[in-house]
Structure formats: C-alpha cells, structure tokens
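Hi everyone,

Forwarding the result from last night's run.
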Amino acid sequence: MSFASDVRGELARTPMEDACCARSELTAALLCGGGIAWRGRERYAVTFTASEAPTVRRYFAMLKRFYGIIGQIRALSGDTLNNQTRYQLAVPEEEALELLHRLELLDEGGLFGLRALPVDETIRNNCCKRAFVRAAFTMCGAISHPDRDYHIEIAAPSEALAGFIALQLNSFDIEARVSSRKSKYVVYLKRAEDISDMLSLLGASKAMMAFENVRVKKEVSNRVNRQLNCDNSNINRSMNAAEAQIRDIRYIDSELGLEKLPRTLRDMAYTRANNPEMPLAELGELMDPPLGKSGVNARLRRIAAIAEKLRCGDEVKL
C-alpha cells in the first residue's frame, strides 16, 4: 500500500464524533466527491465513491447511526478506472432528498437546486472544521511519501470550494494554498511543518509519526552531508594554500636564498617546507617560541609578498 492509502485508511478508522461532525464529514464527502446527481423534479441520486472500502464503510455507519439510513455498498471496476477497484455507497433514492435537506445542501437559487458550499452552521466548531477537511482529503486527497517529497493536496471541483477548504486549514495556522490544474482546483501544502500539523489535526497520528521519523532522518542526513562538504572544502582550501606557500618558499630559495631572509621568516619557511600538510596551528607549535595561528599566517603572508616581488622584478627590502 502507498503512504496515501495508509493515511486514508487511518482516517477512515478514526472514531466517529458528535452528530455535528458527522454532518460536516458527510457534507464534505458529497461536495468534494461529486456525489450528488440531479434526476429532475426534486429527485436526486446520492452516492459516496472512494478508492478504499474502509472509507465507504465509515459513511455507511454514519448514515445508519445519525440518520437512520441503510445504504448499499458495491464495488466498481472497469477500463475507465484503469482496472482499479473503487467502492460506492448508494443512498436509497426515496431517502436522498431528505438527507440533502438535513445536510442543508438544498438551495432553490443554486444550480440544480443545490448549494456549492456548506452553510455556516455546518462548520460552527473546530471539531466540525477538522471533520470537513478530513472527509475532503479522504475523498479527493493525495500525499507524497516523505522519502520522495513533501507534498499534500486536495482536489476540489470548484475554485470556491477549494478556497473554502484552504480557509479551514488556515484557521488552524496551517499555510494552505490554491492552484488551478486542468478542470480542477487544488489545495496544497509544501512545508513539512504544515503537512505534519495537518496529519495531526485530521487524526492521522500514526501517519504523522511515520512522516516525522522520515523527516528527521532526512534532516540529519542533510546536515551531515553539509558538514562533510564544508570539511572537504576547508581541507581543499588548506591544501591549495599550503601548495602555494611551498612554491613561494622554493622560488625564494632559488632566486634569493632562504638564508637571506630574517630569522623569523627563515625559520617559518623551513618549518613549512618540512611539514607541507601540517595545519597552521600545529606549525605554530613547532616554532621557537611557539606562535598562534594568526602569527603563522602573518609570517607566511610576508613570505608570499617577498616571492611576488621577486617574480615581478621589484626590489626586495629585508
């Protein structure tokens, strides 16, 4: 199973909450899943279609417990669905209109007599907002495995509904954004912190812990790699600097003679020439008296300046 399937499965097993939350979940499932079809003359077909059986079983239990409706579950398969089995819960036709009325989804002024967004009463509490987003993700959501990418999204049939879902997430300080994709609008999150918060908010605690475990491992691995790259870069810079210092010392020896250098510089030149791979701090410990790293660096810069003057034919004053 994919990580997204694991998340949807966990959400489908979360305990059913109060009647207000059940109404919010069922409303979101119908609006996001396109489960309402107009049959004319105040006749509607109401269905809940999902990719996992636990999802439709959850809504079956909700309808029975809170509305006294016994739906029919069936499996769907075919070429148009890439041979992937999907599951559908059908509400009896004689009870569909009453269910839509109780969910407050009927609107005489709306297209086909339906509302495009839920009434404010449906999401009056934070628990109802969580339930709404939970159903929206369960029906139309997707999440990438954290090993590959940080991305979670919910597809919505309209821009208004997508904005409504994003607004609910934003009310919990989760940064959700909306973009258009073909005929759909997508609510998406890219920041790992927001994805983790959303999983926790919806009740997918196991998925959230799995997500955080992968995230921590990736961050530690990235930190170690950055440190190794930094160390390698520092080593390369030190080696290049040491090679340049050796070249300067040899050039001075061939053109002028190291014995003509002041004692402090002559001792530094011999010490560096005899220890080409030694760090500056350790070079300083070999000097008499010992020098700090800055003192070693200062003398090597003076040696480099003398070599540069010799190469340019300038007068060297020692």
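The mean pLDDT is 87.

Cheers,
N.
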